[in-house]
């Protein structure tokens, strides 16, 4: 059975020049898509400080300290789980985050430097 011509490796020779042209076309298409996406500028919503860090600190102190402010029944009523299960959930999440942050970045995660140079605004 004969193979189609586009399967033949000898007929397609990629050179650095062809790769550069493809990268430039990609960069131009990317810039055009970003430029024509909207003529109306985005209005930025101001960041409202809701005291999330203080709230988290209070939550830990109220429910998970050695002398909690609220009893375990209040925790069960609010979070629909036992205090011990909540504590295990928090400690396992912290462990998982430590493990994930220690993992090396995969090699494919980095964008080739040639594309970065072409996409960066001058």
Descriptive account of the structure:
There is one protein chain. With 122 residues, the chain is mostly helical. It has helices at residues 16-35, 52-63, 72-79, 83-102, 113-119. Helix 1 (16-35) runs parallel beside helix 5.
Descriptive tags:
mainly alpha; 5 helices; 55% helix; 0% strand; single chain; 122 residues
- Kindly report the average pLDDT value: 72
Largest sheet: none
Secondary-structure element sequence? HHHHH
Give me the number of helical elements. 5
What shape does the CA trace take?
A: elongated
Distance from N terminus to C terminus (CA atoms, Å) equals 52 Å
Question: Can you lay out the helices and strands and say which pair or pack?
Answer:
Blueprint lengths: L15 H20 L16 H12 L8 H8 L3 H20 L10 H7 L3
């Amino acid at each position: 059975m004969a193979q189609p011509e586009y399967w033949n490796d000898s007929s397609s020779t990629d050179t650095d020049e062809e790769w550069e042209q493809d990268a430039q076309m990609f960069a131009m298409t990317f810039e055009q898509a970003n430029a024509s996406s909207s003529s109306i500028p985005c209005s930025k919503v101001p960041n409202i400080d809701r005291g999330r860090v203080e709230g988290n600190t209070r939550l830990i102190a109220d429910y998970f300290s050695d002398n909690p402010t609220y009893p375990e029944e209040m925790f069960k009523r609010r979070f629909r789980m036992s205090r011990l299960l909540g504590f295990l959930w928090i400690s396992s999440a912290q462990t998982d985050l430590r493990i994930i942050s220690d993992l090396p970045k995969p090699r494919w995660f980095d964008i080739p430097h040639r594309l970065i140079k072409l996409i960066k605004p001058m």
